[in-house]
Design a protein that fits this description.
By secondary structure, this protein is an alpha/beta fold. It folds into three domains: 88 residues, Udp-n-acetylmuramoylalanyl-d-glutamate--2,6- Diaminopimelate Ligase, Chain: A, domain 1 (3-Layer(aba) Sandwich); 184 residues, UDP-N-acetylmuramoyl-L-alanine:D-glutamate ligase; 134 residues, Protein-Tyrosine Phosphatase, Chain A (Alpha-Beta Complex), CATH 3.90.190.20. Helices cover 34% and strands 19% of the residues. It contains 16 helices and 19 strands. Strands 7-8-6-9-10-11 form a six-stranded parallel sheet, sandwiched between helices. The chain has a six-stranded mixed sheet with strand order 14-15-19-16-17-18, sandwiched between helices. A five-stranded mixed sheet has the order 1-5-4-3-2. It binds adenosine-5'-diphosphate (ADP) and magnesium ion. Adenosine-5'-diphosphate binds next to helix 5 and helix 12. Adenosine-5'-diphosphate (ADP) binds next to helix 5 and helix 12.
Length: 437
């Protein structure tokens, strides 16, 4: 609930108030960009122009359904004559949404934590929210709403009285994190790591480090930067006026404290982010102790237990050299009879893609993988590195047919690929065979 009137909201968004809210209306219950729910929920609907549809064209329908108001481009004003509810106009609704979110962030006076990095943003955010949430009224990004639309919506969802805001920040190009930091004005900035992910966007790993470091430069004076101790690429980005806390081997926070217990089915890869979450919790002023039960977002290492003691780790949310290496290391420690790795293409790796796939093959061998199923064109290059017999298939559909025929009792299975490969299809096939317990 934004307990502010239409004048304040228009002003805060830098928008023109074309028509006031309904008589006697309090502020909007929430802010939404989804025309399907904005009406019923009494929201301020933000009509975002997209590649195919302009969200603004739903403004009338949304007002008729009971929305508190709409924020749309001026060209939509005419269609809204006679409709009930506030009408705010701005030529760039996404920019206005960000400006409004920043104003609300200032109203809240919560401690804001921004989390970025190549790998482990969502996991770190989930862990941190669970640790801090035991003691403080905490609002965190839901799932992956980490862009210039998702981040403002998260800020605007936070009710008055929120004490800590944990915001995931995505990087889809130079300048994007800087923009998100301008909206969030973080007191604490966390960089989980710097790794070759989305190399195609920026060209090099050094450029990726520079883009992540935009967060450090956006931390408010007197704030705290939480960064990996071992990452030399961030050395040039230690902003003045901000306290630096390092985590990981050789850092200020090397591991989680012994009196912090993490409960529930939390995959080992997710727990790699615990030192960063602990450092960030302390930066917020929360001492990480006791038992916490984090809610881990889906597809990030879910465990599926099948008949005949077959255990499958479903980690198909994304894949890159860093996360695949970590997942293979976990598989090596998984016990059982045989280790079976079903690895799909790692996308968007740029010119070194082949080399990265070959190295993953070699790492699978080093991790003691007995059966390697390689899925997709790039994964052909994993074969030579692996050395042993490789079952190659062109896509997830073919893998879904093959993998169930390969499994034996006691197998420990890893499913890992970039999201675009759809490797969860293999998990569905295994479930469909009725092996799920
Ligand atoms: N610190 C880490 N090191 C290696 N792999 C990791 C780490 N954290 C997470 N992962 C892997 O990366 C995948 C994506 O994790 P997630 O937390 O969603 O990251 P992001 O939000 O940055 O995309 C997980 O499924 C897991 O396999
Ligand atoms: Mg994420």
């Amino acid at each position: 609930m934004l307990d502010r009137d239409a004048h304040w909201i228009a002003d805060a968004a830098g928008a023109t108030l074309h028509r006031p809210a309904r008589d006697g209306a309090a502020g909007p219950a929430t802010v939404s960009t989804d025309s399907r729910d904005a009406g019923a929920s009494g929201a301020l609907f933000v009509g975002i122009p997209g590649a195919r549809v302009d969200g603004g064209s739903f403004a009338r329908q949304v007002l008729d359904a009971g929305a508190w108001g709409v924020l749309v481009r001026p060209e939509h004003a005419e269609d809204l004559d006679g409709a009930d509810g506030a009408v705010l106009l701005h030529p760039d609704p996404v920019a206005a949404l960000g400006t409004l979110a920043r104003a609300w962030r200032r109203e809240l006076a919560a401690t804001v934590v921004g989390v970025t990095g190549s790998v482990g943003k969502t996991s770190t955010k989930d862990l941190l929210a669970a640790i801090v949430g035991r003691e403080r009224r905490t609002v965190a990004t839901v799932g992956n709403l980490n862009t210039e639309v998702g981040l403002p919506l998260t800020v605007l969802r936070a009710p008055r009285g929120t004490e800590v805001l944990v915001l995931e920040m995505a990087m889809r190009g130079a300048g994007q994190i800087a923009e998100l930091a301008r909206i969030a004005e973080p007191d604490v900035g966390v960089i989980t790591n710097v790794a070759p992910v989305h190399v195609e966007l920026l060209g090099s790993i050094a450029a990726i480090a520079d883009a992540k470091a935009e967060l450090l430069h956006g931390i408010v004076p007197g704030g705290v930067a939480v960064i990996p101790a071992a990452e030399r690429l961030l050395d040039a980005h230690r902003p003045g006026g901000v306290r630096i806390v390092t985590f990981g081997p050789g850092g200020d926070v090397e591991r989680a404290p012994g009196d912090l217990a993490i409960e529930g089915d939390v995959p080992p890869t997710v727990l790699r982010n615990l030192p960063a979450a602990v450092a960030a919790a302390r930066a917020v002023g929360v001492d990480p102790t006791g038992t916490v039960r984090p809610a881990i977002s889906a597809l990030r290492g879910e465990r599926l237990t099948l008949a005949d003691d077959v255990v499958v780790v479903v980690d198909c949310y994304n894949a890159n050299p860093m996360s695949v290496t970590a997942a293979l290391d976990d598989l090596a420690l998984a016990g059982g009879e045989r280790r079976v790795a079903v690895l799909g293409d790692m996308l968007e790796l740029g010119p070194d893609a082949r080399r990265h796939h070959a190295e993953i093959g070699a790492h699978a061998r080093a991790a003691g993988v007995e059966v390697l199923v390689a899925v997709g064109e790039l994964c052909r290059h994993a074969g030579p590195g692996f050395g042993g017999r490789v079952h190659w298939v062109p896509d997830a559909e073919a893998a879904a047919r093959l993998v169930p025929t390969l499994l034996e009792p006691g197998d420990r299975v890893l499913l890992k690929a970039s999201r675009g490969i759809g490797l969860e299809r293999v998990a569905e096939a295994l479930r469909e065979r009725g092996h799920d317990r």
